[in-house]
Amino acid sequence: MNAPICAPATPLFPAAVHVVRVSGFELATLLSPLLTLPKPRQAGLRFLRWNGYSEQALVLFFSAPASYTGEDVVEFQLHGNPLLVKRFLEFLGTLGIRLAEPGEFTRRALLNGKQSLLEAEALRDIISAATDTQLRMAQARAGVVPEWVTQAKSCLGPWIARVEAVVDYGEEEGILLKTNEMLLDFQNLQEAFHVEQARSSAARWLRDGIRIALVGRPNAGKSTLFNLLAGEDRAIVTELPGTTRDVLEVRTEWAGLPLFLYDTAGLRDADDPIERLGVARVANVLEQVDLVLHLIPAQDVAPNPDILLRLAPFQAKVLEVRTFGDLAESKSNVVVSALQGDLSALETALKSRFLGPYAPDACLGAMATHRQRELLDELVAQVGLVMDLAPSTPPELYASLLQGMWGLLARITGEDRAESALDQVFSGFCLGK
Ligand SMILES: Nc1nc2c(ncn2[C@@H]2O[C@H](COP(=O)(O)OP(=O)(O)OP(=O)(O)O)[C@@H](O)[C@H]2O)c(=O)[nH]1
Ligand SMILES: [Mg+2]
Question: Which of 217, 223, 236, 330 best tests ligand 1's pocket when mutated (most atoms within 8 Å of CB)?
């Protein structure tokens, strides 16, 4: 576990500079065949020679424990040649410094108390964020123990102490369980957990993105809307029905929502064999997405019954959108006009469906990862159990439930480090972090 590790911290393309990181103990000795380390936190220019190669590198040394991992850390800034980095890493290998696993530097930071699990998760999200909202969400989570966790702990702590006292000394006056006072406290906790649960399910969509398929009859305006949402001219648009055949995919951020959009072939019994193949592909898309936008031109009296039949199995995730709002009136809730660029009804519908009452900004700092949301669900279940206990329940059972809640809170912040949770978090890291 403490074996010295190394990794490129930059992606291996030709570039101005590549950074190679080394972490371990006694690095001054270990690296002595290569260089004399500069003073901690002072950049030093070093001429490195190994196996016939030579390289001038800027070297930074962070002495344990004042470093990213809590161990000695050395960073080499080399010329940005991937081959050079490869040869350098090979040489480090001969010094007994092995290549790091993805996320191993951060895992060590965590185990050495330099970082919390929440920070590590936020860091992973900062690195992988692809939209502004995602980036800001991840940054808001970095290094912050959420307020609701702190509050829940300060509410729960005294009750655990009381319950344990009852277990040890019996129930005396003043430490009765299931009093109104306790009920009130736990009602408040339950409420706070519910709020956080709702906020985190909104945040989840912002973090992971929403997959949306645009389907409908030929000429329903699917490709036009697709282009408008994507903010670029991706799909071919013509006034001829049956223009789109293949499934087109684009990733975009629209109205603060990270979207994966799928444009599809217009649904009809086509004669053209290519168009038929396109229509067949729509089935697959319907399975995979989170939302199906069924586009129906406002001038159509009723939706096409064949299409309704085809969409029936996905009813729960179908949203009807009337297009061509500039050409005809419609009583439907969601009417848009691509021609006039009026998509406000669609924006409202999407936000209320996926974010509920929360604006994207209100989701900053929310528990958005799968791991965090699972723990939150368990917490909600657990507090429900406590609320439902009969007053005559033995104090030992109270004690174990309350301890369980405390444990869940600790797992959310990562004080309680189950190895499986670590694996889950670090599997998403890149090399050198
Ligand atoms: N007036 C008006 N015309 C629109 C609107 N949306 C699309 N159109 C026009 O309708 C025609 C068909 O649009 P497309 O986006 O190609 O329709 P589609 O559903 O992708 O059609 P297929 O690919 O053939 O299935 C084009 O001529 C568009 O310019 C709208 O909101 N208002
Ligand atoms: Mg099209």
Answer: 223
